[in-house]
Design goal:
The complex is a heterodimer of chains A (121) and B (315). Chain A is an alpha/beta fold and 121 residues long. Chain A has one domain: 3-Layer(aba) Sandwich (Rossmann fold), CATH 3.40.50.2300. Chain A has five helices and five strands, in the order βαβαβαβαβα. Chain A has helices at 11-23, 34-44, 60-69, 87-95, 109-119, and strands spanning 3-7, 27-31, 48-51, 77-82, 100-103. Chain A has a five-stranded parallel sheet, with helices on both faces. In chain A, helix 4 (87-95) links the parallel strand 4 and strand 5 (100-103). Chain B is of the alpha+beta class. Chain B folds into two domains: 1-159, no CATH class; 164-313, Heat Shock Protein 90 (2-Layer Sandwich), CATH 3.30.565.10. Chain B has helices spanning 2-10, 15-19, 28-53, 56-117, 126-156, 169-186, 206-222, 268-273, 281-291; strands at 164-168, 189-195, 201-205, 228-237, 240-247, 295-301, 305-313. In chain B, strand 4 and strand 5 form a beta hairpin. In chain B, helix 5 packs across helix 9 (281-291). The radius of gyration of chain B is 27 Å and the shape is elongated. Chain B starts with a helix and ends with a strand. The mean pLDDT of chain B is 88. Classes of the chains: A alpha/beta (121), B alpha+beta (315). Chain A binds chain B through residues 10, 12-13, 16-17, 19-20, 23, 83-87, 104-106, 108-110, and chain B through 100, 103-104, 106-108, 110-112, 114-115, 118, 120-121, 143, 146-147, 150, 154, 159, 161, 163.
Chain lengths: 121, 315
Amino acid sequence: MAKILFIEDEPGLQKTVGEILRQERFEILEALDGDTGVEIAKKEKPDLVLLDLILPKKDGFEVLKELKENPETKDIKVIVLTNLESSGDVEKALELGATNYLVKANYELEEVVQKVKDLLK
Amino acid sequence: MTLLKKIISELNFWEDCSKYGISIWQCPKFLFVVMGGVTISAMTATHLIAIKFAEENLTVISVVGVTVIIFTIGNIIVNSFDKIATANRMKTEFVSIVSHQLRTPLSSLKWSLNLFMSGRIGKLEGKQLEHAEIMKDSNDRMIKLVNDLLNVTRIEQGRVLLKKEKTDLSALVKELVEEVRSFSEANNVSLNFENSLQNSTVYIDKQYISMVLSNLVDNAIRYIKAQGKVVISLKKKDQFFRIEVRDNGVGIPKDEQRNIFHKFFRSRNAMRHRTEGSGLGLYIAKSFIELHGGKIGFKSKEWEGTTFWFELPLK
């Protein structure tokens, strides 16, 4: 069973996204802030990280940077899931090593699930 | 006049003002310089006139007097324009911040509704599904409005960054036609694409031009009463690729035609036909096309139909 780490500070979203991904037979690990996110990533070595950019303690960009700089976690694929949308943000995230950048408001939930499945094939 | 404008832009003078679409004659920085020039000229003129006709003391008094008066008036004028420019900037920032904040709960709601309606957490039937659809529609409308507002603020702040890539225009149109096919059929509108070109490769921001096309086609399909017919055509005109979207819909009354590209403007025929719509689509479309160095326009006859067109430079 593939392991997905969801780093997102909104508990409601954790529940919604968690519910559908668990129904799709994924194991979901939850982190509500940047620091916890990095900790869990290092400990559990998930197959995929879903990363929000606006987070307490450490923001998504810093988390991304740390994950990609650490040899233990640098190969974990990262999908950025956010509502930030300026070209600066997209470029920065992709440069830091994110595989995908999805603006939450523009995707249906099933489309996000499909992207996850595509990356984990 | 253009030489003057060139010199001024070289001095990076009114960058802020042009970014916000403020004309040079309302730009505080420029006005400040103009008032400076006017004051100096007035001082000099008063001096030259005064020494001819009056004795020294009177000359000094009149020069100082004139200077003070003009300087004060100048300051008042420049200050009021500065206040207007600042208020305009703050309004745009406010809209941008609030729109971003709204996106968070709106996207949460969107996904919760997706899950709810998917049947994965219990099957919805009949009226339950019906009312869930109503919730989804409202939510989608709010998201669209927020997206439109964010695009408008980006345009107003000069923050639109075009990601240009080689694109096949005819493929782009075909893709869009397939996407809206079910929508047009649901509205009893026939949709056709007439392409007269072998090669229509162009260097554009695919996402933004798709948005423009999507907006024009959406309008064409929606504002039709019965037995609708929409034709999209692609051809070359001088140094431009020209796309036309022709419909036989409600048309735009002549007295409203000059306002069509203004923010929030909705023509009365459109409003009578369909009350929802932000009135931002065409303002955004015009900005995106012009940022590509293109042109956009339309021809319309009330109750007969409208043809919207836009042109993109070949290079």
